Amino acid sequence: MISENNKSVIYSKTLASDVNALLEGVSSEQLFILTDQQTKIHCLPILQREGALKNAKVYTMPCGDHYKTIDTVVDIWKFLGENGGTRKSMLINLGGGVVTDLGGFVANTFKRGISFINIPTTLLSMVDAAVGGKTGINFNGLKNEIGVINPAKTVVIYPDFLRSLDTENLLSGYAEMLKHGLLSSEEEMNKLSKFDARNPNFELLAELIETSIEVKANIVKQDPTEKGIRKALNLGHTIGHAFESYSHEIDKPILHGYAVAWGLIGELFLSYKLKGFPQNLMTETVRFIKENYGVFEITCKDYPTLYEYMAHDKKNANAGEVNFTLLSGIGEIVPNCIVDKELIYQALDFYRDSVGI
Ligand code: GLY
Is the predicted pLDDT of residue 43 greater than 70, yes or no? Predict the structure, then answer.
């Protein structure tokens, strides 16, 4: 068990009994579970195999980021209220990042805050969304515009859920693990770039996940509200978010983690150019990304649009400046690097050269 802001992350092989053990002091009428339409079918039966959880009241939301809205939140607030929810209630969020973000927000606001447990079911939510206390919803066309930072009482990692996850979603989560590797040590990065993510050894993956979560939890512990070092977790995301938003604009949506992986290529280039990140380590990471993630097709005509997305990223402190977290080496973090347009265009050139377009 590792501690996250005085809360905990546990690794489970027997989900139902491990979660039941966390429910001491919570009466079964006060137990609520949030699922989506997929996790209701595939994951809920495993969670409800035994104990008090069998009688928990279940709310099921539709799948997808599209439903991460205030309307869904209102509906769940009503469900809790109409089904006897009190300040002693406990909400268990069983799903990917949409469910843990939205469910965490519901729990943090209902009756001014009730306890919640996150049980992430995708790799992306295990290593990122469910850990670190960021909760919230999309609003007014903006992602995660409204929210609260307050962590789950416990995050329960049940790696067996990953055995049925498709390769694309596994790789999507794995990109955040690569990011954590780059923020930690050469030893960890070595292990990550040797892993066969297309034909995974699940025992080894479970070990890599544990270390990856530890990297994130240690950063969050130092800076829970993202005033300083937590910005390191944005590595790969400035360019990555621009790719992701643009992919939606042109109706060829890409998965978040793929965008981050391609963003890492550009941001490692900036790290190499501006902060002396070792070239051989950049080349090795770029090789892994190219082999596993393929390409997102862009041409130099797309650069101005991509730049605009970066310039409007909500993480920039000042309008018109594009802010990056860069690295001078693996685990050597340089936050708040303002990079000019010309060099960002060079990073996009490097991305295209690296993936062969
Ligand atoms: N996903 C980045 C963070 O939790 O800070």
Answer: yes
